[in-house]
């Protein structure tokens, strides 16, 4: 038993306070004043300790009983927790303490109202009671230059503008409140001082313009001006500025006037004296200082007299015959004959004096000019192909015409009056100094017309005309060599080239030279220049002076035989043709059909090349179109006899060309909505939303190699945007900077076929618009509207990029693999544009939207077309095919039912079928396959006569393999047999081997080996070295036979020779290692083949009395029998004279031998040949020779 102990501690705590509560939970204090709150009500035990968290504001204390007291030293609004504690615990309560300023009061600004002057410094300090103001405000704002100082509320500053007296309310603020007072401030101007006019004495002539006489002064700016008495008639006093201006109209003696200048600072005055007296004639003018008049036409040169009255008019020397000066100074009349430029002095007289004025006048007779140049001339023939020289100026005229390379008649020698000078242009630089005798005679006559007789003639440096010096000197001219436009002094005229290296200053020197009376003869063609340059109107050197000279060099070309025997028709002059067209349509001066046709022909060679900034040419034509209205061409399908009939109304044809030039040349913001768009390509609904969209463009477009000659191989590749430009509306396109001048275009419109060659138009001839990308942001459009494309130059190094297109309309666009059928049916197909696009990886179709609104299976349709194009690509073997082919369906196309190219074009009558996949699966479309086949034809493998044959590979292949039908009656057995019978009965004439007959040749190959060998043979051409590419028809025939034979593994030379191919022996030799195709269906049926034997031989020596004849039958021909002829002499290829013969019978392909007996022994030499006979003749093989052996002993 035991025990243990432990220690415990016991602590007895006081009971804890239960709660504390102040009478208010908010204590409000005034800054810098005594503030307190009574002790809180405490429940529970006594509180031993008090504390606050956070600490109380500066100046307040928490006392022992929990009360708070003190003088607050800081402004603020704070929340505090008050803790009451003893040993038993702690309780707490919350208290908010707010400390505010004492509100300011009794605010005043001593000395108000205030009258201050601009430019003088002022300061006013206010007084107020109460608490300190912490901020100040004023309403309305103080006058400029005066500020309300926030430190003390003072007004300080230097006002710099006049402000009328007005009230301002100024307020002082602090946290305790605010106080306001109202004051008046008036900012007055500086008084005007030292007012004066210079001059202040105006001694004027009647009608004298005094300009503006402006007063000067010192001090402030006048607010108002006054004058008394008023100024004389037509002199004006500006009551706002004090300026005096006008004209002294009425004569008067001295008048005296007082002028006052007033402002808020005071008044100043000064005096003015005015007298108006008479003056001699003056201020007489004409609209121009030189006038070219047309002979035998009424003329009027009106004078403008803004000076004193003129009592009489005189002129020296006498005016040209038929002109007179009237009593009012106007020169009028009908000049009756040509007159060179002359300077006339016109005298105006009155009692105050006389004045003489200078004016130049000439009378032109263009018919007489043509007569001077052409008199006695006839047919001429010049070297080199010329370009047209279009005489588009008012005083320009044609001289000689030839046929263009495109069939029309073009002027290739033209001339013009230019200012006081003359110019003559040749379409080729080699013509300036003549050619043969007649041509040189004309060139010398041209020099005399341009330069005058016995002239100082300059030959341009580097132009190559120096050899013309002797002929010119023989005509009495003085010749100056190596003349440049930089120095034209001392010469009457210059002979130069259109295609020159002149800079802008040189061209201006030439213009000034002609305007002042100098002559210029130029020659040059632009057609070759245009091959590597663009914009002939502005960039071709000779056209940089064309707006002044009136002679425009076109980029077309013509032949060099020029008829100079007849004076051209008056309407062969473009300006006359334009006037006649205008008179016909506006003035009801109807042209005859013949004259209208001439006018149309004249202008047709101009409107397509002369740009719209040649105002003298275009202004009257545009005026005529505006007066008559734009041409609406009724839409019609291919078979309908509707639309515009070309040639029926030549004037209408001309206006149609003008419309085309306008719609193709006007900037986007000037393009109208051409009314014919309603007919075609169609309207954009009035309620269609215009949108802005950013589109991704694949700039990696290589196009096709140029040997795909029917494919538009190097055409700009069109990248679809799914957007449509409404007719005549401006669309903004923004592109990356690196696309500028990369050869990229924005194309508006899909229907790019030009229809000018058509006799009847079912739509306007040109309805697409190409916009060259020369800026990051472009305005584009189309008068007819159209789909918007980004057209990529196949040679440009672009990559993927984005374009933003604004103010466009959504077009229906289905993209295979991107657009679902659901999206198409319920969204895309309803987009409002009138044209839609169906797109796959290999093919794009542009079709009228109304044709596909109800299309429910676009995926199935475009899968089918994508496969069709893929099969074509594989058939022709150029893989991978680098371009997505396009088909655009049009109301009318430039040629045929459809035609190849990029895009390939078809009539819209075809659309219903090609967008119906069931129809296509069951029927196909031979024409579509055919045209797409054209796009796959490689020129070196397209044999002569097979342009319309090689494309049909695609038609046959797809109709048979994709559609499962024959596809065309022409490839049926009956027609093929009939064609081949006719062809072979006619002797296999290769000149008749075209289209279907040629196709038979290929189809027989296809039926034996399938398409693969044809594909393989075509593929060879794509990588041929340049020196192996066939260069003419014969080479093409031979190359094809070699490549096709290698592809089949058979020698097809005999087969193609049967068709008449002009095969060379080299071709036969190159294929003799291959077996001949002896089973072709021509044999015996259509053509009798000759056999081919080779390796004919005999042992040497042979047996004594016999030998074995061996040979190889390479081609057994048709029904061939062999006869061997032999003897001791070679009798050649004839049956007579041989000593012996033996029949070898028929033969087959392979190696054969026969024994010939009955020979003479013992060293006798024999010769032998084989005659191979067919139903139509025979061929011989050999000779061979051998010697018989000796008999055994």
Largest sheet: 8 strands, antiparallel
Instruction: Name the shape in a single word.
Output: flat
> How many separate helices?
23
Average pLDDT confidence is: 94
State the separation between the terminal residues, measured CA to CA.
164 Å
Rg over CA atoms, rounded to whole Å, is 52 Å
- As a percent range, the share of strand residues is 25-35%
What share of residues is helical?
10-25%
Low-confidence stretches at least 5 residues in length (pLDDT < 50)? none
Can you walk me through this structure?
The protein is α+β, with helices and mostly antiparallel strands. It has 23 helices and 70 strands. Strands 49, 50, 51, 52, 54, 55, 56 and 57 form an 8-stranded antiparallel sheet that branches. The model has no long low-confidence stretch (mean pLDDT 94).
Question: How is this fold's topology laid out?
Answer:
Blueprint: E1 17-21, E2 26-30, E3 34-37, E4 41-44, E5 49-53, E6 60-62, E7 68-71, E8 76-86, E9 89-100, E10 104-108, E11 114-117, E12 122-124, E13 127-130, E14 135-139, E15 146-148, E16 155-157, E17 163-174, E18 177-188, E19 192-196, E20 201-205, E21 209-213, E22 216-219, E23 224-228, E24 235-237, E25 244-247, E26 252-263, E27 266-277, E28 284-285, E29 290-294, E30 299-301, E31 304-305, E32 312-316, E33 323-325, E34 331-333, E35 339-350, E36 353-364, H1 366-374, E37 379-381, E38 389-391, E39 396-403, E40 409-418, E41 421-426, H2 437-451, E42 456-460, H3 469-474, E43 478-483, E44 493-497, H4 504-515, E45 519-523, H5 536-539, H6 546-549, E46 551-553, E47 561-563, H7 574-586, H8 593-607, H9 615-628, E48 644-645, H10 650-665, E49 691-697, E50 717-725, E51 731-734, E52 745-748, E53 760-761, E54 769-772, E55 777-780, E56 786-792, E57 801-810, E58 813-815, H11 821-826, E59 835-839, E60 843-848, H12 858-876, E61 885-890, E62 898-899, E63 904-907, H13 911-914, H14 917-923, H15 926-934, H16 947-950, H17 952-963, ...
Parallel strand pairs: 2-9, 11-18, 20-27, 29-36, 41-45, 42-43, 42-44, 44-45, 58-59, 60-61, 61-63
Antiparallel strand pairs: 1-4, 3-7, 5-8, 6-7, 8-9, 10-13, 12-16, 14-17, 15-16, 17-18, 19-22, 21-25, 23-26, 24-25, 26-27, 28-31, 30-34, 32-35, 33-34, 35-36, 37-47, 38-46, 39-40, 40-41, 48-53, 49-57, 50-56, 50-57, 51-55, 51-57, 52-54, 52-56, 59-60, 62-63, 64-65, 65-68, 66-67, 66-69, 69-70
Helix pairs in contact: 1-2, 7-8, 7-9, 8-10, 9-10, 12-17, 15-17, 20-21
């Amino acid at each position: 038993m035991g025990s243990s102990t432990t220690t415990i501690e016991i602590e007895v705590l006081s009971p804890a306070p239960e709660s504390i509560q102040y009478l208010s939970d908010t204590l409000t204090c005034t800054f810098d004043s005594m503030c307190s709150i009574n002790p809180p009500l405490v429940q529970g035990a006594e509180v031993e300790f008090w504390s606050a968290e956070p600490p109380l504001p500066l100046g307040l204390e928490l006392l022992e009983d929990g009360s708070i007291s003190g003088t607050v030293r800081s402004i603020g609004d704070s929340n505090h927790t008050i803790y009451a504690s003893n040993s038993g615990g702690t309780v707490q309560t919350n208290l908010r303490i707010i400390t505010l300023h004492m509100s300011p009061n009794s605010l005043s600004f001593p000395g108000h109202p205030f009258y201050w002057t601009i430019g003088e410094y002022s300061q006013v300090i206010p007084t107020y009671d109460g608490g300190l103001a912490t901020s100040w405000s004023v309403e309305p704002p103080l006058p400029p230059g005066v500020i309300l100082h926030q430190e003390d509320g003072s007004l300080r500053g230097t006002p710099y503008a006049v402000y009328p007296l007005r009230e301002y309310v100024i307020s002082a603020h602090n946290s305790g409140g605010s106080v306001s007072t109202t004051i008046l401030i008036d900012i007055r101007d500086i008084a005007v001082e030292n007012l004066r006019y210079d001059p202040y004495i105006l001694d004027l002539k009647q009608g004298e313009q005094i300009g503006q006489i402006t007063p000067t002064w010192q001090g402030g700016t006048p607010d108002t001006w006054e004058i008394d008495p008023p100024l004389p008639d037509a002199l004006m006093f500006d009551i706002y500025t004090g300026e005096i201006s006008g004209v002294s109209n009425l004569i008067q003696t001295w008048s005296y006037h007082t002028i006052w200048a007033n402002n808020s600072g005071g008044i100043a005055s000064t005096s003015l004296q005015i007298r108006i007296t008479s003056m001699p004639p003056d201020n007489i003018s004409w609209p121009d200082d030189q006038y070219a008049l047309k002979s035998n036409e009424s003329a009027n040169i009106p004078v403008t007299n803004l000076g004193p009255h003129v009592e009489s008019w005189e002129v020296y020397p006498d005016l040209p015959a038929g002109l007179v000066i009237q009593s009012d100074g106007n020169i009028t009349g009908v000049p009756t004959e040509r007159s060179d430029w002359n300077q006339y002095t016109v005298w105006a007289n009155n009692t105050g004096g006389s004045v003489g004025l200078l004016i130049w006048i000439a009378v032109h007779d263009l018919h007489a000019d043509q007569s001077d140049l052409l008199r006695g001339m006839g047919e001429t023939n010049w070297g080199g192909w010329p370009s047209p020289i279009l005489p588009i100026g008012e005083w320009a005229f044609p001289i000689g015409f030839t046929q263009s390379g495109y069939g029309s008649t073009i002027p290739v020698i033209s001339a013009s009056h230019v200012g006081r000078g003359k110019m003559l242009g040749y379409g080729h630089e080699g013509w300036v100094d003549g050619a043969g005798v007649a041509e040189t005679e004309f060139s010398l006559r041209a020099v005399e017309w341009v330069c005058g007789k016995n002239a100082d003639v300059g030959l341009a440096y580097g132009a190559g005309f120096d050899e013309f010096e002797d002929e010119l000197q023989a005509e009495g001219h003085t010749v100056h060599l190596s003349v440049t436009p930089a120095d034209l002094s001392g010469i009457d005229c210059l002979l130069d080239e259109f295609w020159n290296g002149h800079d802008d200053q040189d061209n201006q020197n030439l213009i000034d030279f002609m305007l002042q009376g100098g002559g210029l003869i130029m020659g040059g063609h632009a057609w070759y220049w245009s091959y590597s340059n663009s914009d002939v109107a502005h960039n071709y050197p000779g056209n940089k002076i064309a707006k002044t000279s009136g002679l425009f060099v076109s980029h077309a070309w013509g032949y060099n035989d020029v008829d100079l025997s007849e004076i051209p028709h008056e309407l062969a002059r473009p300006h006359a043709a334009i006037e006649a067209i205008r008179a016909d349509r506006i003035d009801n001066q109807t042209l005859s059909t013949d004259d209208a046709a001439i006018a149309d022909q004249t202008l047709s060679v101009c409107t397509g090349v002369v740009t719209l900034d040649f105002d003298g040419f275009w202004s009257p034509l545009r005026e005529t179109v505006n007066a008559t209205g734009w041409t609406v061409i009724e839409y019609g399908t291919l078979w309908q006899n509707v639309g515009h009939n070309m040639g029926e109304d030549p004037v209408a044809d001309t206006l149609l060309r003008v419309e085309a030039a306008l719609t193709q040349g006007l900037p986007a913001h000037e393009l109208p909505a051409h009314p014919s768009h309603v007919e075609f390509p169609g309207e954009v609904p009035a309620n269609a939303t215009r949108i802005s969209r950013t589109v991704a463009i694949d700039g990696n477009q290589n196009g096709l190699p140029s040997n795909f000659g029917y494919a538009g191989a190097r055409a700009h590749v069109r990248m679809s945007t799914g957007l449509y430009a409404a007719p005549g509306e401006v669309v903004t396109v923004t592109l990356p900077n690196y696309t500028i001048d990369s050869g990229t275009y924005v194309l508006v419109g899909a229907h790019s076929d030009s229809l000018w060659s058509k006799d009847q138009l079912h739509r306007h001839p040109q309805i697409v618009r190409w916009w060259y990308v020369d800026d990051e942001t472009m305005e584009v459009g189309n008068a007819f509207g159209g789909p918007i494309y980004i057209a990529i130059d196949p040679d440009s190094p672009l990559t993927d990029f984005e374009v933003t297109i604004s103010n466009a309309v959504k077009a229906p666009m289905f993209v295979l693999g991107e657009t679902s059928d659901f999206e198409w049916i319920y969204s895309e197909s309803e987009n409002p544009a009138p044209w839609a696009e169906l797109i796959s990886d290999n093919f794009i179709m542009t079709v009228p939207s109304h044709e596909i609104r109800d299309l429910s299976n676009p995926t199935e349709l475009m899968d089918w077309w994508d496969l069709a194009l893929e099969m074509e690509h594989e058939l022709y073997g150029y893989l991978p095919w680098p371009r997505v082919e396009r088909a655009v369906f049009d109301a009318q196309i430039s040629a045929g039912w459809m035609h190849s190219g990029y895009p390939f074009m078809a009539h819209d009558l075809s659309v219903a079928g090609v967008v119906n996949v069931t129809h296509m699966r069951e029927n196909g479309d031979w024409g579509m396959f055919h045209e797409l086949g054209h796009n796959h034809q490689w020129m070196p493998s397209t044999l002569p006569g097979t342009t319309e044959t090689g494309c049909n590979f695609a038609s046959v292949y797809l109709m048979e393999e994709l559609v499962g039908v024959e596809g065309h009656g022409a490839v049926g057995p009956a027609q093929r047999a009939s064609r081949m019978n006719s062809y072979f009965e006619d002797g296999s004439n290769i000149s008749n081997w075209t289209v279907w007959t040629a196709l038979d040749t290929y189809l027989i190959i296809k039926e034996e080996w399938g398409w693969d060998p044809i594909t393989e043979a075509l593929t060879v051409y794509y990588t041929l070295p340049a020196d192996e590419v066939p260069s003419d028809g014969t080479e093409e025939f031979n190359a094809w036979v070699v490549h096709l034979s290698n592809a089949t593994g058979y020698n097809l030379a005999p087969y193609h020779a049967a068709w008449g191919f002009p095969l060379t022996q080299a071709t036969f030799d190159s294929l003799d290692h291959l077996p001949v195709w002896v089973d072709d269906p021509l044999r015996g049926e259509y053509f009798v083949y000759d056999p081919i034997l080779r390796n004919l031989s005999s042992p040497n020596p042979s047996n004594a009395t016999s030998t074995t004849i061996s040979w190889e039958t390479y081609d057994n021909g048709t029904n061939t029998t062999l006869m061997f002829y032999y003897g001791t002499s070679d009798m050649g290829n004839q049956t007579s004279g041989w000593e012996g013969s033996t029949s070898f019978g028929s033969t087959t392909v392979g190696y054969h031998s026969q024994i010939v007996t009955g020979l003479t022994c013992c060293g006798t030499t024999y010769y032998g040949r084989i005659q191979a006979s067919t139903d139509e003749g025979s061929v011989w093989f050999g000779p061979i020779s051998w010697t018989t052996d000796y008999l055994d002993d």
